[in-house]
């Protein structure tokens, strides 16, 4: 796939890289004291680490949903007779 990536630098009180690619446009504030390319690579590294945390948290949430569903669907034990489901509590045991 080809990415028609366009970059425009805006230098003022802060420096920004305005990135346009495949119809998406976003701005990245560049860290001071570095070249634009180095600052963009640092930004990419930080964003990938953040994305990895977000993905791992999404995976944890999915596993938690599975645990909740399993608990909801698990047979319940009657506290007075020990039978699993199928009769009303309190039972006549």
What separation lies between the terminal Cα atoms?
70 Å
Mean pLDDT: 89
What is the count of DSSP helices, taking H or I runs of 4+ residues? 1
Physical arrangement of strands within the biggest beta sheet: 1-2-3
**Structural class estimated from helices and strands:** alpha+beta
Q: Give unreliable regions as ranges.
A: none
Q: Tell me the fraction of residues in β-strands, as a range.
A: 15-25%
- Radius of gyration based on Cα positions: 27 Å
Beta strands, count: 3
Shape by Cα distribution: rod-shaped
Give the biggest beta sheet: 3 strands, antiparallel
Overall tally of structural domains: 2
N-to-C SSE series? EEEH
Helical residue percent?
Answer: 40-55%
């Amino acid at each position: 796939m080809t990415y028609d990536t366009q970059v425009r630098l805006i230098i003022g009180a802060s420096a920004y890289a305005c990135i346009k690619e495949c119809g998406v446009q976003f701005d990245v504030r560049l860290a001071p004291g570095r070249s634009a390319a180095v600052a963009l690579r640092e930004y990419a590294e930080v964003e990938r680490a953040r994305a990895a945390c977000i993905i791992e948290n999404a995976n944890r949430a999915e596993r938690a949903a599975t645990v909740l569903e399993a608990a909801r669907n698990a047979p319940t034990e009657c506290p007075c007779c020990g039978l699993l489901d199928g009769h009303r509590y309190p039972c006549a045991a």
